[in-house]
Amino acid sequence: MKPASHFWAGVRAELPLLVGVFPFGLIYGALAVNAGIAPAAAQAMSSIVFAGSSQFAFAQLARENAPALVIVLTIAVVNLRHMLYSASLAPYLHELSMRWKILLSYLMTDEAYAVAILHYEKVGGTGHAHYYFFGAGLALWSTWQIASGLGIWLGAALPADWPLDFALPLTFIAMIVPALKSRPAWMAALCAGFVALSAQALPYQLGLILAALIGIAVGTMLEARSAQTSDLREKREEK
Amino acid sequence: MTVWLILLLGGLITFGLRFSFVYLLGRLEIPSAMRRALHYVPPAVLSAIIVPELFLHNNVLDASLDNTRLLAGIAAILVAAWTKNSLLTILTGMAALFLLQFIGAR
């Protein structure tokens, strides 16, 4: 297959996901200008940071006038999961030139990762497979830029007294609730929520960072403990 | 100007995270403890943002039935758990909030 046909196959594989991404982009754009962020900055966020949930967190914190350091820290924590994607895709990108590695890393979003890794697991990292990843990533990139631009434009036209900011926690609920598949994940979410609520009086919104760290610690410890008990059970059954 | 600084730093960090292991492969392995911990980043962070949004009204805890955002949020959580459809979740939550505010205003 030629590079171009790999590219278009990637674009086609990404299409169904774009249906879900488009409204998120619209909501982000509208929320960002609603939070008082300049339209140019809101759009630049979509192309420079290019990571949906961290952009929503950015809009939320900007609305609350959080200090810059806390906003940057939050963006970093929300985007930590990309390291997982990086680690999982790395073996397939190993042979590529540095230019390709940089380009594909920039395009590494949740949705592009989901499509690319499935393809790589099927065909491996040889030949022109990276054009597939590039097609999927570029399709998502263009959609995200257009959708957030449209949202920025529409957001300025919406009445100011509409409770539009509520779309933000709703977006996060839509992202995270379906992903809570195990008890440690539920407990991580519940503990983080509880700590965030109790620690909200802390200055500079540090409660958010504290809550996230405690949630992550609780999830990790519970997972380690349940792995231990199942090990014990297996040993007992062996006897 | 601060917003552009946030943008630049946020962008650099995000790219760094995405590029990290693509660049380092062969030089460094991702420790398994860290790999496990990374799985809990999304539920912890997102929940830490959601919960205060639902329970706090003007920075004061409000767990009463008058808290329209809490009720609408619970409706959205139920729809999300049940349907796993993100658009439907957002629409339900928004519709519930509009409806509850409309009833409350009467």
Can you characterise this structure?
The complex is a heterodimer of chains A (239) and B (106). Chain A is mostly helical and 239 residues long. Chain A has two domains: 3-164, no CATH class; 180-238. Chain A has helices spanning 3-34, 39-48, 52-63, 68-78, 82-93, 98-106, 110-123, 129-155, 167-176, 183-198, 206-238. In chain A, helix 2 packs antiparallel against helix 8 and helix 7 packs antiparallel against helix 8. Chain A is flat, with a radius of gyration of 20 Å. Chain B is mainly α and 106 residues long. Chain B folds into two domains: 1-36, no CATH class; 40-106, no CATH class. Chain B has helices at 2-24, 32-38, 41-55, 68-83, 86-105; strands at residues 56-57, 60-61. A two-stranded antiparallel ribbon of chain B has the order 1-2. In chain B, a hairpin with a 2-residue loop joins strand 1 and strand 2. Chain B starts with a helix and ends with a helix. At the A-B interface, helix 1, helix 2, helix 3, helix 4 and helix 5 of A face helix 1, helix 2, helix 3, helix 4 and helix 5 of B.
